[in-house]
Amino acid sequence: MAIKAPSLVGGDASCPAQVSLASGARIEFSIPEPNEVSASAQVSIIVGPDPESPEAEGQEKNAGQYDPNKEDYVKESNLKLDIAADDLKKFVNQTVQVRYAINSESGRFYSDPLMITVSQ
Questions:
Q1: 1 lies in a domain?
Q2: CA 36, CA 111: separation in Å to the nearest integer?
Q3: 96 within domain boundaries
Q4: Domain annotation covers residue 2
Q5: 48: domain range?
Q6: With 80 as the cut, is the pLDDT of residue 24 above it?
Q7: pLDDT in tens, 52-84
Q8: 34 in a domain, yes or no?
Q9: Where do the segments described as Disordered lie (predicted)?
């Protein structure tokens, strides 16, 4: 099961994408809306070659919100996740893999990687 990679918000589509730590305190990624992400799941950005043991991880965010009128979760559209620039400092002048992790009732899953080159 392939889960589409995140994309860099405001970045170009080059591979690898370029990230400058001077541009702000947080680096933002856009998450595609695959069917694999349930509205009740939590998602987070992870960095490093081994998704099961990431070298850096952003805060978890709910993929959706509970709607009491529907008595169910509703998936958030245009889901965006971020990671602090400080968390990426150890990767300056390197190309690293960025994924998002999905934590749901059925387990933990990982997207395909996005390659980013981190600069100062």
A1: no
A2: 10
A3: yes
A4: no
A5: 7-119
A6: no
A7: 999 999 999 999 998 999 888 898 888 899 999
A8: yes
A9: 46-70
Tokens representing 68?
């009491």
Query: Structure pTM?
Result: 0.88
Mean of the per-residue pLDDT values of the chain: 89
Cross-strand partners of 18: 117
Give the CATH number of the domain where residue 26 resides.
2.60.40
Residue 5 φ/ψ, nearest 5 degrees: -70, 155
Three-state SS across the chain?
CCCCCCEECCCCCCCCEEEEHHHCCEEEEECCCCCCCCCCCEEEEEECCCCCCCCEECCCEECEEEECCCCEEEECCCCEEEEEHHHHHHHCCEEEEEEEEEEECCEEEECCCEEEEEEC
Looking at the 3D structure of the chain, how many domains does it have?
A: 1
Residue 60 tokens read as 């978890």
